[in-house]
Every structure is written in structure tokens, then in C-alpha cells.
Amino acid sequence: MSAPPSVTLWTARRGFGCAVGFVVVSLGMNQALRLAYEAMPSFADWIRANSSYVEFVFKVLQGCLWLITAYLFSGARSLRAFAWDAALVQRPTGKGWVLACAAISLGGMNLWLLQQGWISTNEFAHRHYAGGPGAWALFIVYGVFLSAFFEEVMFRGSLFHAFRQSYNMWISTGLVLIVQLYFHWGLVIKSVPDLLFVLAGGMALCAIRAYTGTTWNCVWFHAAYNATVLRQWPFCAFGMLVMLVFLEATRPNSSPVTLQARGQAGSAEKDDSNGEKHRI
Description:
The chain is built from 13 helices and no strands. The chain is an all-alpha fold. The longest helix has 31 residues, at 133-163. The chain is globular, with a radius of gyration of 23 Å.
């Protein structure tokens, strides 16, 4: 792996500013949509008729603006430098695969609690499911894949990394959880188990970022959990299989031929060393 393009410019101050920027982007987009909704009746009617599709575009645009906000506050001089700071250059690891299995188990526990009536039903998901196959497909694409990527680059790739430049692991995790709770407020106020799942997941993801060194493991964990909660079992199975194949294909070559070549090279070096000794 190549050396980092530059020393990180993230600081805790930049992290706080970036967190405020995320909130401003969210509030600004919601306010702009509300004003357009009230000022243009025809636009409002079009939104009602295509609410699922409009919401998908709105969330993707919001996620892209969040990434731009993180890039601007990072002080990085290039996208490559930003990607390195956000731990997106480093590939997922075998530990990430094991942790994704743990995320599936955590999602299964969430579903069990839902059946017991201890966790509230996801009305957002039900609304998209009732909107037809197209609306449900867009919701799955965003809910499983895009939201995991956007949020992990925001929270773990940017904010957590920024706070770690000045604070220890626990304080940095706590600060990230505060921002995360703000963006999941509509969920966490429904029940105590919902709150505990968000807190436990957020803490686990910060630990994954800190101890595995790559944000892709966080994205993988997040996507596996979301797919399980949304009962997308084919995505879970296919995703885990694809990542297992990817890990196998990208790990250092340790085939018998390679090992034999390494052994021969070691023997040659040993013979040369012995020859040098005899000549001396």
C-alpha cells in the first residue's frame, strides 16, 4: 500500500465545525423543500404523486452534500488525500467479515424484539413497501447500501477521525454518538430498545474504525445490519459471499508454488552466507 499523500489536517475544531455543517445541510434542505412545497401548488401535487422517488433523490442529494461538507472541513488538497484520511483507501479485512456476521446477529435480535412488541414498527419502510415494487426497490438501495456509505464516511470516517486528533477513544465516541442521535432522533424517541440499539451500534462502529483501520469494515457492518432488519436475506447471503471471495482474491499469495519459491530463495541465501563464511 502506498504512503499517505499528506499528514491529516483534521482537528477537533474542524470536527465540531463539520458536525454543525451536517446539521445545517439537513435543516437547509428540509426548509427549502418545505418552502417550495408551500409556494408552488403544482410542485406539491407532483411531490405527492411521486413521493417515494422524490424522497430517494432528496436523500441521495443530501448524502452527497454531506460528503462535500466533510471534504471542505477536512482541509484535504485532493480527493485522494480525503479518501486516505477517511480510511477509504484501506480495503476491508477478514475481521470486517466476522464483524458483519455479528451485525447480522444483532439485526436478528432487533427482529425478535420487534415480534415481542418491544421495538416499534418502521413506518418509513412500511410506507415505501405500500408504494409498490419501484418505491420499495429504491428504499432498499438507499437503506441498505447508500445510507451505510454516507453515514459511515460522515460519522466514522470524518467526525470520529477528527475528534481522535485531540481526545481519547471514549470522548471521541461520545461526541460522535451525540451527532448520530440527532440524525436518528425520530427513531430513538420511540422506545428504549431503539435507543439502546443505536447507541450500541454507534459504539461498535467507532471501535471497528479505531481497531481495524478501515471505514469499509464499518460500511460493511452497517449494511449487513440494515439488510437484516429489512429482512433482505438474499442481500445478506450474496453480500457476505461476495466479500468472502474478494478477501480471498486480494489476500497475499500463499500458494504452494509461491511457498516453494520462497523456500528456494531462502535456501539460496543460506548457501551464499555459508560460502561467504568459508571464504573468510
